[in-house]
Task: inverse folding
């Protein structure tokens, strides 16, 4: 079967998650008070960001390391680093 | 690791490996550093690898490289919701040596290519992140990695660290991108038996087909979708500028599923099995976004230098050519034993004198034109479809009358002057 949901898509990928997040939301209040659309929760291709009412949950373990959130956050509120060497996403095919 | 090398190459994609390979091949002592578990594990590409620039590095590479299919047909689809206007070219000359381009899967290909570099003498270290360039008296003299005692030194550091190029930004060679300078692209690899692919795309075993899709493939947003045939799988992907994605509040994976279930596409994928899902940014700012590419002891190549021609979906070839030019520059600099900016600036001259910057310059206003004038993707593609439907539907209306009706409906929708303006603007952007 071809996938239908983002959860199914993410299951196809091998991740070697670090214990520590390589993504940091600098100020959750900025998300709450200045960003009604919570844009990162929409355009992130891996649904890493989920708004929990008071703070942004960051599921860094499923990150594709594409860089969109760093560039697309209208408030430059995301600190973006590479995961530690050898960690993070491991593409096997394309 | 506090050894000194002639060259440190950061990154093991096509740009980095082309550079490392060529340097080692010329007798230089090369360290290549890759942050992934293996070369290719962080790298994503729709899948078209061009023969010419690869062959300039490894002659007749197709005899041993892990390639998928030589592309013999390139199709272009102007897609509406329930219709499509198509054109393309199929030529058997592309199916025999020396070939034009190939579909590839990057993880196996990049590993193979990096191994060829190792055979030339490149020392490749994986699972290592370069945290920063070490700068002394305004000259890059090495890099600091995330390994214990992870400082390492060289005459020249080549940044082949990809689209995000945090290192290029740290050096101040370019600013952070705007969302309209990058395309966010997602794709899936879908397994399908070889026979099904051959039947559905009208191919033989060692023939490949590429389809670029415009219009409803991105729901009218600035971007494209693609379908590329591998040996026993299909790569299907879609991307738009990050700014369009944000503006339209699109979830990229929803757009991909929209594409996969589109009535014009679904039959190609029937019975397929998803094997991998991948997201990546493509640097599409073009000519205006190319950063400073040569500095004191440092060069930028490939995506890190924003070398992508989005209009012609060329990128890996520019990566390879730029990597080779950087290597040739370093070899010459070594003979002068001068790795300062004016010595390394030869690389910039080579780049700007080649097809790479010439092509980027040709299309320097295209992205901006199409971004600020969404009518090309949103309105003209559906219009083309309606015109084709009208013209080819036999209903007793004389053909000349049909032509008049089509012209009237096009100019009626947007106004004659506006249509002429649109045509002129588009021509100017790509001429």
Result:
């Amino acid at each position: 079967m071809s996938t239908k949901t983002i959860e199914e898509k993410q299951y196809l990928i091998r991740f070697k998650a670090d214990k520590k997040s390589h993504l940091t939301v600098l100020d959750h209040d900025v998300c709450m008070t200045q960003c009604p659309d919570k844009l990162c929760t929409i355009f992130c291709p891996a649904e890493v960001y989920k708004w929990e009412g008071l703070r942004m949950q960051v599921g860094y373990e499923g990150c594709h390391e594409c860089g969109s959130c760093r560039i697309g956050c209208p408030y430059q509120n995301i600190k973006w680093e590479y995961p530690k060497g050898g960690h993070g996403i491991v593409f096997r095919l394309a | 690791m506090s050894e000194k090398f002639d060259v440190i190459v950061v990154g093991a994609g096509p740009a980095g490996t082309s550079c490392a390979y060529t340097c080692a091949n010329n007798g230089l002592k090369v360290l290549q550093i890759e942050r992934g578990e293996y070369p290719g594990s962080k790298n994503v590409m729709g899948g078209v690898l061009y023969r010419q620039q690869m062959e300039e590095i490894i002659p007749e590479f197709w005899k041993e490289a892990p390639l998928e299919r030589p592309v013999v047909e390139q199709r272009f689809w102007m897609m509406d919701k329930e219709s499509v206007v198509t054109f393309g070219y199929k030529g058997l000359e592309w199916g025999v040596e020396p070939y034009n381009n190939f579909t590839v899967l990057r993880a196996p290909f990049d590993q193979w290519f990096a191994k060829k570099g190792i055979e030339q003498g490149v020392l490749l270290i994986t699972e290592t992140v370069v945290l920063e360039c070490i700068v002394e008296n305004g000259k890059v003299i090495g890099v600091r990695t995330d390994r214990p005692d992870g400082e390492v030194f060289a005459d020249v550091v080549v940044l082949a660290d990809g689209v995000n190029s945090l290192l290029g930004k740290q050096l101040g060679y370019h600013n952070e991108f705007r969302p309209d300078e990058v395309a966010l692209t997602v794709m899936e690899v879908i397994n399908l038996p070889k026979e099904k692919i051959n039947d559905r795309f009208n191919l033989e075993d060692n023939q490949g087909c590429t389809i670029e899709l415009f219009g409803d493939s991105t729901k009218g947003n600035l971007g494209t979708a693609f379908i590329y045939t591998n040996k026993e799988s299909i790569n299907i992907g879609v991307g738009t500028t990050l700014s369009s994605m944000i503006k339209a509040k699109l979830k990229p994976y929803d757009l991909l599923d929209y594409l996969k279930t589109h009535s014009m596409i679904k039959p190609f994928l029937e019975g397929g099995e998803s094997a991998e899902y991948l997201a990546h940014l493509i640097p599409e700012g073009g000519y205006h976004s190319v950063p400073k590419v040569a500095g004191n002891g440092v060069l930028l190549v490939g995506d890190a230098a924003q070398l992508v021609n989005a209009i012609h979906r060329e990128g890996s070839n520019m990566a390879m050519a730029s990597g080779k030019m950087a290597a040739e520059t370093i070899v010459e600099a070594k003979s002068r034993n001068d790795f300062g900016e004016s010595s390394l600036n030869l690389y910039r001259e080579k780049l700007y004198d080649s097809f790479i910057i010439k092509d980027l310059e040709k299309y320097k206003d295209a992205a901006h034109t199409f971004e600020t004038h969404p009518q090309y993707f949103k309105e003209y593609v559906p219009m083309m479809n309606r015109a084709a439907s009208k013209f080819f539907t036999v209903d007793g209306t004389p053909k000349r009358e049909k032509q008049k009706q089509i012209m009237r409906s096009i100019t009626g929708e947007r106004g004659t002057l506006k249509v002429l303006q649109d045509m002129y603007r588009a021509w100017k952007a790509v001429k």
Observations:
- The longest helix of chain B spans residues 316-336.
